[in-house]
Amino acid sequence: MQKTKITYIVSDTNRYIGFEWVVNALKSYFDFSFILLNSGKSYLEDFMMQNDIPTYFIQYNGKKDVLKSFFQVRKTLKKIKPAVVHCHFFDACFVGLPAAKSLFIKKIIYTRHYSTLHHEYFPTKGVLYDKIFNFLATDIIAISNVVKDVLIIKEKVSPKKVHLICHGMDFTDFRNITQNSIEMMREKYNLNNTFPIVGVIARYTEWKGIQHIVVAFQQLLSIYADAKLILLNAHGDYAAEIQKLLSQLPAKNYIEIKFETEIKSFYSIFDIYVHVPTNAHIEAFGLTYIEAIITRTPSVFTLSGIAHQVVEHEKNALCVPYKDSKAIYEAMIRYLTEPELKNKLQTNDLTDIEKYFGLTRFVEELKVLYEK
Fold it and tell me: Which residues sit opposite 10 in a β-bridge?
C-alpha cells in the first residue's frame, strides 16, 4: 500500500528536535519530505538527509526573497505531489500556504507556534497576516489552550478548523542523559568549580523577559561572586538591549551560547533555571517548562503558555510575578539557602506529566489528523 505523502515546510530553523521525533515515529506510516527555507545549511537538513528523508534547501534571507521562494516552493511541491502540506513558523506559512493553495492541495496545515505576539507587538500587519494564514489553511494546530483561545476567540477561526495538539516529547532523551555528556559540556564551557550556575534557554526577544533575569543575576553577584549565568539560544531581535545589560557584568560571570546540540545536558548542570515570559499569554507553549520539571531542575518561572497547566508553586518550581527582577532574585536565593526546596523536587510524581506530554500521545494525534 502506497504511503500518504506529507511535506513539511519549515523556515529559519537550525534544529528542532520535535521534527526528528515525529519523523522517526511516523515514517513507517507516511512518506515524509522537507522543504527548508533557511539562510544557510542546518543541522535539521543534515539529520533528514542522513535518515533518507528527501529534503530541499531554499535560500531564504527574509522578506526580499518571498516572491522568489514562493515559485521555488511551488515548483518543488509540484514535483513532490504531496497529499498533505504542513507549515511551521511564520515565513514558512507566508510562502508555503499560498504555494500549496495555488496547487489545490487538499490538506494544508499550519502549526501556530506563537500566541498573542502579533496582537501585542504587530497589531496591524501581523494580525492581518495571521488572518490570511487562517483562511488559507484547511487545518490549524493549536499547541496549547492559550493558542486555541486566541484562534477561536480573538481571531474568530471556526472551531472545526482548529485542532488542539499539545507538543509531546521523548522523555527517554532526558532520562538517558549520561554523566559523560554532562562532564563534556562542563569541560567545553569551563564550568567546573563554578557555583551557582544560573541557566536561561530562550531567544533574545523582549517578551522572554531575559532582561529581568540579567538584573536579578547582577544582584546575586553581590553575594555569590563566582556565580555564572549561561544564556543558551543567545540571539534574536532584542540582542543589543540584553548585551548592554550583560556588559555591566564581569565577563567571567556569563557565557552566551548561540547554538548547542546538547542543550538537554545543561538542565543537569544548572543549579537554578529561570524562564520568565512577560505575561500570561505571550508564550504559546513553552516546552522548556516541561523539560525543566521532568529533569527536576530547580526552576524559577512566570506562568505563561503551558505553565498554567503544569507548574505548581513550591511543588515543582517557584513562581514569580511578571517583569519582577527583585522577585527572581529572591527566588534564586531561596533555592540557594533552603535545601528542602530542591529535595521536594526530587520526590515529585511526574507520571501524569509524562503521560500527557509524552511522544506517544502527540504522534498519535498527528497521525489521526494526517489521515482524516
Answer: 36, 88
CA–CA gap between residue 42 and residue 236 (Å, rounded): 17
Mean pLDDT of all residues in 25-34? 97
The CATH number, out of the four listed (3.20.20.10, 3.90.79.10, 3.20.20.140, 3.40.50.2000), of the domain defined by the range 4-169+357-371: 3.40.50.2000
91 φ, ψ to 5°? Answer: -65, -30
Q: Where are the alpha helices (DSSP H) in the chain?
A: 17-26, 43-50, 66-80, 90-102, 117-121, 125-136, 145-149, 172-175, 179-188, 210-220, 239-246, 263-266, 287-294, 307-310, 325-337, 339-346, 351-356, 359-371
- Residue appearing with cell numbers 545543561: 266
- Digit-coded pLDDT (tens) for 165-205: 999 998 887 878 899 999 999 999 999 989 999 999 999 99
Contact between residue 228 and residue 253 where contact means Cβ atoms under 8 Å apart: yes
- List 139's β-bridge partners, or say none: 109
Residue-range domain boundaries for the chain? 4-169+357-371, 175-350
**Separation of alpha carbons 183 and 194, rounded Å:** 13
- Higher pLDDT: 175 or 99? It is 99
Q: Taking the CA atoms of the chain, what radius of gyration do you get in angstroms?
A: 21
Local confidence band at 213 (pLDDT 50, 70, 90 cut-offs) = very high
Mean pLDDT of the chain: 96
Cα separation, 92 vs 108, whole angstroms: 12
pLDDT digits (tens, 9 = 90+) for 294-346: 999 999 999 999 999 999 999 999 999 999 999 999 999 999 999 888 888 87
Give the separation between CA 156 and CA 134, rounded to whole angstroms.
Answer: 10
The grid coordinates listed for 258 are: 548561540
C-alpha cell, 132: 490570511
Query: What average pLDDT score do residues 132-141 get?
Result: 98
Cis upstream peptide for 54 (omega within 30°): no
Distinct helix (H) and strand (E) counts, the chain: 18, 13
What is the reported pLDDT for 355?
A: 87
What contacts 176, CB < 8 A, 6 or more positions away?
A: none
